[in-house]
Structures are given as structure tokens and as C-alpha cells.
Amino acid sequence: MENKEIIIKVNDFLIDEFELEENQLVPTARLKETLEIDSLDYVDLVVIIEKTFGFKVKGEDFVGIKTLQDFYDYIINRVQAN
Amino acid sequence: MNRVVITGMGIYSTIGKNIEEVNNSLYTGKSGIGFEQLRKDLGFRSGLTGIIERPNLKGELKRRQRVGMAEEGEYAYVATAEALKRAKIYEDFLDKNDVGILYGNDSSAKAVVESYDILKEKKDTALLGSGAIFQSMNSTITMNLSTIFHLKGINLTISAACASGSHSIGIGYYLIRSGLQNIIICGGGQEINYHSMGSFDGLNAFSVREDQPQKASRPFDRDRDGLVPSGGAATVILESYESAIKRGATIIAEIVGYGFSSNGDHISVPNVVGPAKSLEMSLKDAQLKAAQIDYINAHATATPVGDLNEAQSISKVFGLKTPYVSSTKSMTGHEMWMGGASEIIYSVLMMQNSYVAPNINFENPDEYSAKLNIAAETIKNHNIDIFLSNSFGFGGTNSSLIVKKIK
Questions:
Q1: Which of B14, B167, B250, B283 has the smallest set of CB atoms within 10 Å of its CB?
Q2: Which residues lie closer than 8 Å to B342 by C-beta, 6 or more apart?
């Protein structure tokens, strides 16, 4: 899967499942402060990542992820590692 | 002691998705019952059920507000939003005042079953999602609605089987009467899915008149063969008379009596003495004589023994001359945890519009129902100043409420 395709898939679920607007999804957007993803939303992110990409994320993996770009990078790395 | 009045009502049921639709259905004797093949495929003895469409709340509520809401919570949200609007209670008022919630609910099975199904397959609780726990708990309705509507008063779920909705209004009435609260959202919600109903179906308590779904719920009729499970949600806004006057709210009716009792007997088979005690207690509380009641909304679910015993309880208290009696479950099916609250709304609508809704499918009485003045057809132009509504549940929990017209 190409990086571009991964980013599109991530954006799709952020728009469809988390009801974010497309124009909010800029790489510098901060997940907590800007996109308002709270602690319960992270639980749902684990579920949707597993459904979309087939791998499980541990809660602690999110610790270093601050921006949307961090999130894209994390998913890309995991997909490529698989 | 404060007088306690109803200043708002809202409903989402198998016979209508709001007050107007429900009033029309009651007046015309419309049934909300249907047949679901999936239940038969799963091994249910009866495929009969109330039929209801799940509300689509996307766009109305944020995702975070929706993910923790089970089906009955969605129904309760719609009913409560309608009731608050009718009571003219808006966001600003809710933010500044201690409005409480007491809602009847006694199961939330679907989320539990679905979570377990995921767990069996995935073997990882991290994949159950954030909403499952909030959907699974019995207090799912009160925890969700108190968050959505920013409620700051009492926040409790009342679980009392098929009397849950009625007790929620009764306890709300006590709290307002004693001055502890000014306004409480009371009601009852009931999931309608097959996940929650298999174990009840297993008791052989449901009607199997599957070839005629709308004829299946036949309270008090000689040929009744069981109840039809149903659901939805119903909300009434209880308020102190003083608060209602101060706000300039429209007063719909007054709660004047609440009676309760426990049979202390069989877990599922009702008796005569317990319900009669609850009835008598409500009359005493209201300082009324039985003869002053203009209409009884019976609990009668259409089970052979339940209706038989309720008919005897009513005769025991009211004697040979009973007021009009009908069981709206003939149309709605048994709304269980919701029923005690919805039946207050059904009866208030009859009171407001001067009619008695029919006990449809009542074709032949049995020995005991013959002694009741059952409204088999809509009784038009019938004035109701005071009515009584009964609700009884598993474990022998009984609740009776008396409601009076405000003049």
C-alpha cells in the first residue's frame, strides 16, 4: 500500500467515523487540541485501525503522537513493517 | 408539601413517533405489532414483536454523544427532547437550574451480547470500542441523557421490571412533593431487539398468534394466549406547581397519588392481594374514593394469569361498578420497562381529548374480565377528570399512579 493511499484511508475514517471536516485534516493539526480527539476516541481509533489496516495498536503507542502527521507516520511505519 | 404537575410529555413508540401521532393511533385503535422472521430463525417460540424504526440521530447529536447510546437510549433521547420542548425548558434553563432525571430501564442486552461476540472472535477487549460499556449498563439512559442535556439534579435509573417507568414517576413525585427537587425528567425506555427477548420468549409467555400479528395482543379477552414484547421510550416532565407557575409553563395534569407494594410471592406469577394493596395505597395518598376514578389504564399484558388476577384486584377495590378500563397494550404490545411511563402519557392524552382508547381485540370476556367495564371500542366524548394507571412487574413489584386534570 502506498503512503498516499494510507493517508487517504486515514482521512476517510476520520471524516466518516469521527465526523471531522476535510479542511481540518492538515498535517500540523494537533489531535487533542485541534481535532478534539479525547481519551475515549483513542479507544475507538484502535478498533478502526484494526478494521482498516489489520493490525492492533496498543494504547501506549499513542503517547508520542501529537499531530496528524505523527499519526500518518505511525500508521505508515506499521503498515510497511507488516 | 408541593403539588406535583406534568409540564411536558414526549414519546417514541410503536404507535407513533411523537405525541400527535400517538394520540391519533390511540383514538383509532391502531396496532403497532408485527412479525419478525429472524426471531423464528433463531429458535424463538414467537416471532411477534412491536415494530419500531430506530431514530437517526446523526447530525442532531455529536458522535461522542451517540456512541455510548444503546437503542433504548436513542428512543429516550427523542422522547425527552420532545418533552423538554413542550415544557419550554431549553439549554439555558438546564445549565442554570438543578433539573434531575429518574428513568425506568431494566436491561441493555444487545450491547452486552455484541461485545461478547466480538470478544469471542478477536480475543482482545481493546477491540470492543469506547461505547460498549456505556451502552451495556442498566443506567445507560440516565447516564447518556444527563450528559447530553447537562442535568444537575438527581440522576438515577429505576429498575423494577415492568413497573420501572411507573415507579420512576412515583419516586419523582415524592422528591418534588417533599421539596428536594423542582423539576425531574421521568420516564421509561425499552429495547426491542431479539438479543434481549430470547430468555423471556423461553418462558412461553408470548402470544403465538403469528398469522394475525395485530390480533395477537388481546388483554382481558377470553382467548388471549400471551403478551407481545414491544418497546420505545416515554418521558414526562414532572415539576412543582410553584415552579411551573413561576416559569409560565403549561400545566398538563397533576400527579395526586402513588401507591406501591411487593407481592412477596412468586417471581413471575402475579397475585391479587399485592396489586390491590398498591391500588388502595394510591387512592389513600390521593385522598380519593374508588368511585371518583373515571378511567383505569390496566397493566393487563394479555397473559392468562396476569389479566385474571388484575381483573380480580380491580374488582376487589372498585366493586361491581368499575370505571372504564382498557389496556393500551392491546395496541402497543407490552412496553415493559417503558410501559408505566407511556401509559401515563396515553391516559393523559385521553384526558386531554375526552375519549377512552379502545382495548382492541377484546371480543369475549372471561369470568373475571366480565365484571369490568372494558372499553372494547373507542369511547368518544367521555370526560376524564381523574385516572389511575397500574404497572406490575417480575418479582411482584407493583405501582399505581393517579393523575388529575388541572381545572
A1: B250
A2: B11, B13, B165, B188, B232, B233, B234, B328, B332, B335
